[in-house]
Specification:
Strand content of chain A: under 5%
Distance between the termini of chain A: 44 Å
Strand content of chain B: under 5%
Radius of gyration of chain B: 24 Å
Distance between the termini of chain B: 6 Å
Helix content of chain B: over 70%
Number of domains of chain A: 1
Helix content of chain A: over 70%
CATH topology of chain A: MetI-like fold
Oligomer: heterodimer
Shape of chain B: globular
Number of strands of chain B: 0
Number of helices of chain A: 11
């Protein structure tokens, strides 16, 4: 079957799952809204100080924030922040973690020992603390948030890639390529890696939800992407300050954030079921910041 | 047993050494570093030199690390750069608050998660079972800070039943006040872990229910409830205890976000404060304490195994 054909086939098998189809539709809608926010005329920055902290109205569907900015517009732009950070962070995590895991699993020995100690450490330290410490070192910026979130995901990809190497290393097709005199890098990156894409892809989708949650948590703690860039976490942070004045402030950003996280999670689980035949995706061991 | 515990404690040392060295190295790699924090932005070169000498920051990093490590062994974690108070004292003030919150949250998580898991494992495939898997996805996916905000909106803003900001009241001082102050943050965390607990326990219960010994028990005519309570539960609990331990340990340092929502004075807020003000000795001390706490709880779980499962003998 051609690569395109099999992709379509996988797509079909995912879409027949109702919750997965719904999640995919939601994510596509959010991505489109984020991409065309400017074209549609949303303005997340213009202030209307005469109308601060208003509830929902005809002019402002979801009310206004403490500077009289349109909450709906800011939520739509917040989607952009969230999705870009998640995509960047997951790409970073995979491109650092996968080679690490391949090398550790392939050569074993001290390389493997070092990697496993790092994985241990990651299990002992909550991701949020790791990300906070990284931001303390890097300073507060969009790049810092993306890097911090991405680096906390590295051990996960390293572990997945390592497990793949260990299970494929002694398979006949790998031994055959090796017998032809292929170099170690060739075996790792051209023989084993192309046969490992399904768990890696699944992990990328699942980790997107973790990345979005982590970015929002950092923003909520006031160390995420600096203002005035709209972000859901930052909106929840300020919304929390005005709970008594404007109870509706924190509702919409929180709802969008939650739905996005749940959608990525559902999609990841559907992918894992379709690609790997595992109905119950592994619980993200304490990965979510509490 | 004592030999086993001693050996496990010895194994902790390399992990702690690596971790503390990494953290130490990372903090000192920052431009400006601790001196910058101590003297402020507009310091003269003379001031910088004086402070650098005074705090021994002109020595090689390795020497400083060895010095810090030596003191840490004796319980001296240095002084906060800001308040100038001993780090050990600052942590000592916050640790009880965090432990109390972590325990309450775990209890709430168990009270919600265990009955749900048992009920859904016994009714596999039913609407209730499917509902539960939706519930655990929800409990895991909804950010705790949003749950916290919604709880505050409902119980503090609308109903005016509970305080929006939670203080630390020791249980022994006033159980009622403690409950009033802890129930919202603990429920926020408890809801979150209940999803994890339920999903895990359901999985291991189902695995046990399909085991041969259950068939034997059924065929010799044992009542289903006796099979579940006396046989299946005991076996399913073993892997479950690990998860409870991991989550409890995670709360020691990982309840950062929830503590921030409720302005609860625990370790999480201390860490944030320390990172925000670049208070290096405080950051190192906090992370060290969190790591040690995590490892000790995991050790305690392994020791507990022996009592739950007599087949295990660590020798």
């Amino acid at each position: 079957m051609s690569a395109l054909g099999s992709a379509a086939e996988i797509g079909k098998r995912i879409v027949v799952r109702k919750t997965a189809a719904l999640s995919l539709a939601y994510l596509v809608a959010v991505a489109l809204a984020a991409a065309f926010a400017t074209t549609v005329g949303f303005d997340p920055l213009s202030q209307n100080l005469a109308r601060m902290l208003e509830g929902p109205s005809r002019d402002y569907l979801f009310g206004t924030d403490e500077l009289g900015r349109d909450i709906l517009a800011r939520v739509v732009y917040g989607a952009r922040t969230s999705l870009i950070t998640a995509a960047g962070a997951v790409t970073l995590a995979a491109s650092v973690g996968v080679p690490m895991g391949l090398v550790a699993g392939f050569f074993g020995g001290w390389r493997d020992a070092v990697l496993m100690r790092i994985v241990d450490l990651k299990l002992a330290l909550p991701s949020i603390l790791l990300a906070l410490a990284l931001i303390a070192v890097l300073g507060r910026s969009q790049v810092a948030a993306l890097t911090a979130v991405g680096l906390t995901g590295v051990p996960t990809f390293a572990r997945v890639a390592r497990a793949q190497v260990l299970s494929l290393r002694r398979r006949d097709f790998v031994t055959a390529v090796e017998a032809f005199g292929a170099s170690s890098p060739y075996l790792m990156f051209r023989t084993i890696l192309p046969n490992s894409w399904s768990p890696i892809l699944t992990q990328m989708v699942v980790l997107s939800s973790v990345a979005i949650l982590l970015e929002a948590s950092l923003a909520f703690l006031g160390v995420g992407i600096p203002p005035p860039t709209p972000s859901w976490g930052e909106m929840l942070r300020t919304g929390k300050e005005y709970l008594y004045e404007s109870p509706t402030y924190a509702i919409l950003p929180g709802l969008m954030l939650t739905l996005t996280i749940l959608s990525f999670d559902t999609l990841g689980r559907a992918l894992s079921a379709v690609l790997e035949g595992r109905e119950d995706a592994p619980v993200r061991r304490g990965a979510g910041p509490a | 047993m004592i030999g086993y515990v001693a050996r496990r404690l010895m194994q902790l040392l390399p992990v702690l050494l690596t971790a503390s060295a990494l953290i130490f190295g990372m903090m000192y790699a920052v431009p400006g570093g601790p001196v910058g924090v101590l003297v402020g932005e507009n310091a003269t070169p003379e001031q910088i030199e004086k402070v650098t000498k005074e705090f021994g920051l002109d020595r090689p990093v390795l020497v400083q690390y060895a010095d810090w490590l030596g003191r840490a062994m004796t319980g001296d974690l240095g002084h906060s750069l800001h308040s100038r108070e001993p780090v050990a004292k600052l942590i000592g003030e916050r640790l009880p608050a965090t432990i109390q919150l972590a325990l309450t949250a775990t209890v709430i998580g168990l009270l919600l998660g265990v009955p749900l898991a048992v009920a859904s494992a016994l009714t596999q495939g039913s609407w209730f079972d499917r509902g539960l898997s939706g519930w655990s996805a929800l409990a895991l996916g909804v950010p705790t800070f949003w749950v916290g905000i919604l709880l505050i909106l409902l119980f503090a803003v609308q109903l005016r039943l509970l305080p929006a900001a939670s203080g630390y009241v020791p249980f022994w001082d006033s159980p009622w006040q403690m409950l009033r102050n802890t129930i919202l943050p603990a429920s926020t965390l408890g809801l979150y872990v209940s999803g994890i607990f339920a999903r895990f326990l359901r999985g291991s219960l189902i695995a046990e229910l399909n085991a041969d010994y259950v068939r034997t028990a059924r065929s010799k005519g044992l009542v289903e409830s006796a099979i579940v309570v006396r046989h299946v539960m005991r076996n399913a609990l073993l892997p479950f205890v690990t998860i409870v331990g991991i989550m409890l340990a995670g709360f020691i340092g990982g309840a950062v976000v929830t503590e921030a929502v409720f302005t609860y004075p625990g370790m999480g807020r201390l860490v944030i404060q320390a990172i925000g003000s670049r208070d290096y000795p405080l950051i190192q001390g906090c992370i060290l304490v969190i790591l040690v706490g995590y490892m000790l709880i995991n050790l305690a779980v392994d020791v507990l195994y022996v009592y739950i499962d007599p087949r295990i003998d660590y020798g």
